Amino acid sequence: MIPAGPSPAIDGDMLLPAPRRGLPSPTMQHPSPERSTPSRPAKVFEAIARNEPHVTETHLSLQGDDAVLEVEQFQLHYGAMHALHNISMRIPRGKVTALIGPSGCGKSTLLRSVNRMNDLIDNVRIGGSMRLNGDPIYAPGVDVIELRKRIGMVFQKPNPFPMSIFENVIYSLRIDGESDKRVLAQTCEESLRAAGLWEEVKDRLQDSALRLSGGQQQRLCIARAIAAEPEVLLLDEPCSALDPIATGRIEDLIEELKGEYSILMVTHNMQQASRTSDCTAFMYLGRLIEYGPTDDIFLQPHLRETEDYVTGRFG
Hints:
The chain has one domain: 3-Layer(aba) Sandwich (Rossmann fold). Helices cover 30% and strands 22% of the residues. The chain has twelve helices and eleven strands. A seven-stranded mixed sheet has the order 1-11-10-4-9-8-7, sandwiched between helices. Strands 3-2-5-6 form a four-stranded antiparallel sheet, with helices on one face. The radius of gyration is 20 Å and the shape is globular.
């Protein structure tokens, strides 16, 4: 899939419904007297400003998770610009992991590195490693086209192809040469059902996908991605161009897909991260600052910098 161009972001923080997971609203959260103070003083950003190495504060509770994706000391340069600095993290299988942080901190760059979308940009250099189910992503000789079949990606602006709803969903099967009409029809229905769209479009599968609403188009893009049975599903701000109702449907869908799919998601919306994810990674200036279970990141972060960000004191 070819990413669509940038779209105007909608500030969903004031529009979305209250958190569903029982967590307080991050933008309204303040430390209470009973709460323990984060274990380190707020000096991480000062050290980064001095270009000192940063070791990610990774919560021990994540170590037992089975990882579908392993990132080790990964770094990326755009020409002379050092965009990602020694990122190390394990993405747990069957869970939703959210990447949060201020604009320009490297969230989308890291996400796009997983399926090597950054290869399309000139003067990109990488270091370190990534492994998908034990297979190296950046090793010499890796077939990037085959790799991308294993990794579904949905962009922030819905990008349905200018063809029918049916042909959009089965696009990956067509590319692989599948021609059995029963297989194609079954895959289409199963994918649309999984994306929560079947009942809305089952009687107009031959209509142009461009006639769907924005929220329907985004769910169609998710159906198209999961039709290929990916090992990982990447979501790059999937709700930023949607209204609150469509956003709620996408979040419900993410919850339904969790378990069957391993999801890595970029979001600027703290409430969305707290509602939808199991694990949260806080990034800043190309570094992974803190990584842990979502409840801990929002309620008991180890670092003061993380607390300041999720409570809205900066960013």
